[in-house]
Design goal:
Elements (H helix, E strand, L loop, with lengths): L5 H4 L12 H12 L6 E5 L6 H13 L13 H7 L6 E5 L6 H11 L9 E6 L6 H12 L5 E7 L7 H4 L3 E4 L5 H15 L2 E2 L1 H11 L3 H14 L3 E2 L1 H8 L4 H12 L3 H14 L3 H20 L9 H11 L4 H19 L4 H12 L5 E3 H14 L2 E3 L14 H5 L3 H8 L17 E3 L5 E3 L17 H14 L1 H8 L2 E6 L2 E6 L4 H8 L1 H15 L4 E6 L23 H11 L15
Parallel strand pairs: 1-4, 1-5, 2-3, 3-4, 6-7, 13-14
Antiparallel strand pairs: 8-10, 9-11, 12-13
Helix pairs in contact: 3-4, 5-6, 8-9, 9-10, 9-11, 10-11, 12-13, 12-14, 12-15, 13-17, 14-15, 14-16, 16-17, 18-21, 21-22, 22-23
């Protein structure tokens, strides 16, 4: 019983049949026509994209007895021998199992012998990066000046592991990962020749699963044909390949969009009960977030999905902004790393889905700080309570509606079970996961006592300087924001830090940060100032926080009080430099 698998049966027999690598095949065909073939070639690229196949085609055409231009005839004894793997002068060597110096020495000794069957000897070394450094060194001289009848073709998926001394002696061709349309077209041609009925969506799913490898796609198609009765359909392909149904992923994304943690956990239970691979399910969820992100930024042109799947994503994507999707994607990536190495993957998956369904809309923290800066310029302000989010916000329960005051509702919203997220601060692009904050200006009369700020041109000018530092380096701007100017003595600027801001003081005094601030001080104030710090005594314990209604005033007269108020209001946490709360 002999059956030839599709991946071998449909291996290209001419350069024209190689799919998706025209930049390689056209160059080689022109080199053959002009008789300018090099003595050594290096083919690099991902698996299943045609490296070894192209090497065999090159070997065929070099020794072909009656070539058709730059293509082999595939009919002479030499071409048939190469296709059947029995040519005496074409050697295919596995670099992984013949990687030592002894094997390369043996090869080097045999190279000098004249060909047995054809005019030339061709050595094809697959996975050449597996050779040892000693083996590469033994090959160097022979590779640079081989006998005129010898050609080398190296193939590898990891070219960065090959010494530069080898690379410089070869002509390198980079094979690309095949596009989805190229793979789908070839699968349709195979099904047509094999007389297999199919649904186009089923072939599209196989092509997506192949991840750019034609060999993988043909092997998966072979597997699905073996399991089919009369026709390849979408359900059969999902079952045979153990793929996650896109409908389940869409239901999960909908649950996350609507903040329905119960539905998200129920879906995890459904996946576990059905026996689906949890890792594949998690990856399908991450891929769904990626598709939503691409849809929100560029539209559907770059998505290789069916029309129905795109319409589903459009409906779900209306609940998210791009910033929301970026946050959820980073959150999922962090959780997946923990999930992979967990002894209880189900528990991690459930926790990750519950966390995802507890998201809050993202607001750029730098914009929030700028808004507060504008208020402080007026002398004060008040913070309005968060308003209810339209459409995408989960309805309040009857109990919360009955509680009456907005302060009670806000307290309920800040409950750990309600999904409030921490306030991450990142270099360059900081986001606070908070509800919308609106600040209304409220002027105050009277003359402001500038105190120690008077020697800097007033408190407002100092705040303008802080804004400049934040624009240049956001983390550094936040650290110096927590300081209070104690005075200016000659060329010394005395900054006071409370004991709870000791870390900020240490970061400001770090040599490179200190130089950076002093340089900007001189540029902004037109005078050279050297930073000195003074650690203030710890402040008295803060009384318990009282609930406030929307009309309460907030004292924003001190810089450190501003950030503290932000953190308290949104039950957040400020992360120091170097720590990425999203796991990125």
């Amino acid at each position: 019983m002999s059956y030839l698998v599709l991946a071998r049966k449909w291996r290209p027999r001419t350069f024209a049949q190689v799919i998706g690598q025209d930049h390689v095949t056209v160059t080689l065909m022109k080199a053959i026509e002009k008789e300018r073939l090099a003595h050594a070639y290096l083919f690099t690229g991902p698996r299943g994209c045609g490296k070894t196949t192209t090497a065999r085609l090159l070997a065929k055409v070099i020794n072909c007895e009656a070539p058709k231009g730059s293509e082999p005839c595939n009919e002479c004894a030499s071409c048939l021998a190469v296709m059947e793997g029995r040519h005496l002068d074409v050697f295919e060597i596995d670099g992984a199992s013949n990687r030592g110096i002894d094997e390369i020495r043996d090869l080097r000794e045999k190279i000098g012998y004249a060909p047995s069957q054809s005019p030339s000897k061709i050595y094809i070394i697959d996975e050449v990066h597996m050779l040892t450094p000693q083996a590469f060194n033994a090959l160097l001289k022979t590779l640079e000046e081989p006998p005129s009848h010898v050609y080398f073709v190296f193939a590898t998926t990891e070219p960065h592991k090959i010494p530069s001394t080898i690379l410089s002696r070869c002509q390198r061709f980079n094979f690309k990962r095949l596009e989805l349309g190229e793979i789908t077209g070839q699968l349709e041609a195979i099904c047509g020749q094999e007389k297999v009925k199919y649904d186009p969506e089923a072939l599209l799913l196989i092509a997506r699963r192949a991840e750019g490898s034609m060999r993988d796609a043909e092997s998966l198609l072979d597997q699905c044909i073996s399991a089919s009765d009369a026709k390849l359909d979408l359900e059969l392909v999902r079952t045979v390949l153990g793929l996650v149904d896109s409908a389940i992923v869409a239901r999960l994304l909908s649950a996350v969009a609507e903040r329905e943690r119960g539905k998200a956990l129920a879906l995890v239970d459904e996946v576990v009960t059905s026996g689906l691979d949890l890792e594949k399910f998690f990856l399908a969820y991450i891929e769904g977030l990626r598709n939503l992100l691409v849809l929100s930024v560029e539209g559907a042109d770059r998505l290789d999905l069916t029309r129905g799947e795109i319409e589903q994503l459009r409906a779900i994507g209306g609940h998210f902004t791009t910033a929301d999707l970026l946050y959820l994607f980073r959150q999922a990536s962090r959780s997946f790393r923990e999930f992979k190495y967990s002894s209880q993957p189900r528990y991690y998956l459930e926790a990750a889905m519950a966390e995802a369904a507890s998201w809050e809309s993202a607001v750029e923290l730098s914009k929030l700080i700028s808004k507060i800066d504008a208020i402080e310029g007026e002398g004060g302000g008040k913070v309005k309570e968060p308003e209810e989010r339209p459409t995408s916000r989960r309805p309040e329960s009857r109990e919360s509606e009955a509680s009456g005051p907005a302060g009670d509702r806000r307290s309920a919203a800040m409950d750990p079970g309600s999904g409030t997220q921490p306030v991450p601060v990142l270099d360059g692009s900081a986001y606070a996961t908070v509800d919308r904050v609106e600040v209304e200006q409220e002027g105050e009369g009277g003359v402001i006592d500038e105190g120690p700020y008077s020697e800097l041109g007033g408190r407002e000018k100092w705040e303008q300087f802080l804004s400049k530092v934040r624009e240049a380096k956001l983390p550094l701007g936040i650290w110096i924001f927590s300081a209070e100017v104690k005075g200016v003595k000659g060329d010394r600027l005395i900054l006071g830090f409370s004991s709870q801001h000791r870390f900020a003081m240490e970061m400001v005094l770090e040599e490179k940060n200190k130089r950076f601030i002093e340089k900007h001080l001189e540029k902004f104030f037109g005078r050279k100032l050297i930073i000195e710090t003074d650690e203030m005594k710890a402040e008295a314990a803060e009384p318990p926080k009282q609930k406030r209604s929307g009309g309460d005033k907030v004292d924003l007269s001190k810089e450190d009080a501003v950030l503290e108020e932000i953190v308290k209001e949104f039950d957040g946490e400020v992360f120091s430099k170097g720590k990425d709360p999203l796991g990125g």
